[in-house]
Amino acid sequence: MSQLEIQAIATKAAQQVQRCYRSPRIAHSARQITTKLRVRFGRDGSLVGMPSVVSQSGITPGNQFYAGQMAQAATTAVIRCSPVHLPQALWATGWSELDLTFSPLAMG
Fold first, then answer.
1. Beta carbons of 107 and 20 less than 8 angstroms apart
2. Where are the domains positioned within the chain?
3. Which of 8, 21, 70, 94 has the maximum number of C-beta atoms within 10 A of its C-beta?
């Protein structure tokens, strides 16, 4: 599977999960924290295990207190929106995980 195809799949999954994202009540400066999660899905689109935090960016001394809350909000969105609906052809290639990026500023 090409990198472009994987990116298209991640975008489709992110669009589904985004509707379940609820930003925690936090300082405005914390909204610049971006969280990347690694997520594994089963053939039926259900979540396999818990998402894991791959990285976070936008953390400053003034907002680092909120990094855990932002990671939890992203994780909760994935759990709430499971299962995701993705093309069945993906499973034939052995695909089962992807990285999803949550950026509150980009989500509005």
1. no
2. 3-107
3. 70
The whole-model pTM stands at: 0.87
- pLDDT (tens place) for every residue of the chain, 108 residues total: 677 877 787 888 888 898 999 988 888 889 999 999 999 988 888 999 999 999 999 999 999 999 999 999 999 999 999 998 887 776 666 677 889 999 988 776
Q: How far apart are CA 81 and CA 25, in angstroms?
A: 21
> What DSSP string runs through the chain?
--HHHHHHHHHHHHHHHHTT----S--GGGGG-EEEEEEEB-TTS-B-S--EEEEEE---TTTGGGHHHHHHHHHHHHHHTPSP---GGGGGGT--EEEEEE-HHHH-
Strands 52-57 and 34-40: antiparallel
